[in-house]
Amino acid sequence: MKVKGKYVILSFVCLVLGFMISFSYQLTKTENQEENVLTDKQWQREYEYRNTLISQEEVNRKLQQELFEKQERVRELEENLADEEQVLFNLVEDVEKLRMYVGEVKVKGKGIEVTLADSSYVPDQANVNNYIVHERHIQSVINELLVSGANAIAINGQRIFHNSFILCIGPVVSVDGTQHPAPFVVSAIGDPNVLDGALNITGGIKDQLVSENVSVKIEKKQQIILDPLLGRE
Asked: What pLDDT shows up at residue 231?
């Protein structure tokens, strides 16, 4: 009986030990399965995140490309608009210049004044006509000023143009029908240095006028104002 009792106890211990080993194995297996399931879910979630990120990056690249294309289009439009504005500005500038040339607007600017006067000395028995200012003298000054870049010219304050006519009538000069006595002040708007240099060049207009007994005085002016032609303002 004692021997049998020992076997019964041993068998019981073995049974309990086997149960504990089996339970421990099942518990460990379940935990591993749950861990594997959790790992699979995390991987699936990361995979989805990665795919979403890749898709978003692709969308961003397309949007960026569209932005570049639109920016390039805007730049082209701005350049075209700038060209059109420049053309318009040039047209307006040309119109203003034409209005200035035809005498429709008052003009002012730097320039020079050329005063032509009859000679103060006339020898006895000399021909007086050889010692006074004639229309050719005035015309030669005007031509030289125009060639040198004068923008506007006037004689004794009267604007002249490409079709103006100057006639000598005795002691006076007629400019487009208006008579002016000597001295004659030719005002010209333009670069004073250029205009002055053109008239004072050796053997130029000034020397020719002096040789023909015409008194010549040239002054640079910081501002000359020429009124528009009467009736054209």
From this structure: 44
CA distances from 199 to 60, 93, 165, 196 (A): 71, 29, 22, 5
* 179, 172 contact by CB (below 8 A): yes
Burial of residue 204, with CB atoms counted within 10 A of its CB: 0-12 exposed, 13-18 middle, 19 or more buried: middle
- Residues of the chain where predicted confidence (pLDDT) is lower than 70: 1-40, 88-89, 91-105, 229-233
Residue 131 is predicted with a pLDDT of 87
Q: What radius of gyration do the chain's Cα atoms show? A: 53
Cα 70 to Cα 63: distance, rounded to the nearest angstrom:
10
> How far is it, in rounded angstroms, from Cα 47 to Cα 55?
12
Asked if residue 100 lies in contact with residue 233, where contact means CB atoms within 8 angstroms, the answer is no
Residue 94 has a pLDDT of 63
* Plot region of 125 (φ>0 → left; ψ -120 to 50 → alpha; else → beta): left
Angle between helix 192-200 and 135-147 (nearest 10): 130
φ and ψ at residue 175, rounded to 5 degrees: -115, 110
- Distance of CA 90 to CAs 67, 152, 209, Å? 34, 19, 39
Interatomic CA distance for residues 133 and 142, integer angstroms: 14
